[in-house]
Amino acid sequence: MSTTSLPRTTSALALTMGLLALTACTEAEPAPPPRSTPPVFENEEQALAAVTETYQEFMRISNTILIEGGVEVERIDVIVGDELAEFEHGSLIELATAGKTLVGAPTLVSTRISEWYSSPDSLGVVAKAKSCIDLSSVDVLDAAGNSTVRPDRPRTRTWAYDVGVGGAGQAGFVLLDHDVDAEGESCEI
User: Fold this and answer.
1) N or C: which end of the chain has fewer CB within 10 A?
2) For the stretch 124-158, what's the b/e string if a residue is b when 16 or more beta carbons lie within 10 angstroms of its beta carbon?
3) Which H/E stretch holds residue 31?
4) pLDDT of the chain, 189 residues: tens digit per residue
């Protein structure tokens, strides 16, 4: 019996051709899908929780600054946008330079979302909300320790505000706008 053997170069060539054929049959790895930005909020419940937490932190920081006599007002910058920061600095400094001291703390009674978005709008807003604050335990004292609060001051104040995504060195969400919406003996949101 005679066996014919192929020259080594031929078998190496056949092996290479076979590998190339196998490689040609496999598909190239598909490119990964483009990364999309995850939504800021997936539902209203998430938006309400984030907005409520943001507003509570805003109240905590601003109250601390006022109780401490208006020093280091830039601490508020962690929870407010640039434009609102300038206004808040002025308000906090004005109270401190008037020689007034805050006693007590406002209480967040309720928060309602009027709009929320899965991504920031053209102004950077991700939610529009209102919060009602109970002011009955807050007093403002002058330098002599006398109350400067009017006896007919409304018990509650409702604030309307916009929330955006915080930047570097800020909280996850910040207040972008903040205006008094209503005052009264009960919350109106």
Assistant:
1) N
2) ebbbbbbbbbbbeebebeeeeeeeeeeeeeeebbb
3) none
4) 444 444 444 444 444 444 444 444 455 566 555 555 678 999 999 999 999 999 999 999 999 998 888 889 999 999 999 999 999 999 988 887 888 888 999 999 999 999 999 999 999 999 999 999 999 999 999 889 999 999 999 999 999 999 999 999 999 999 999 999 999 999 877
pTM above 0.90, yes or no: no
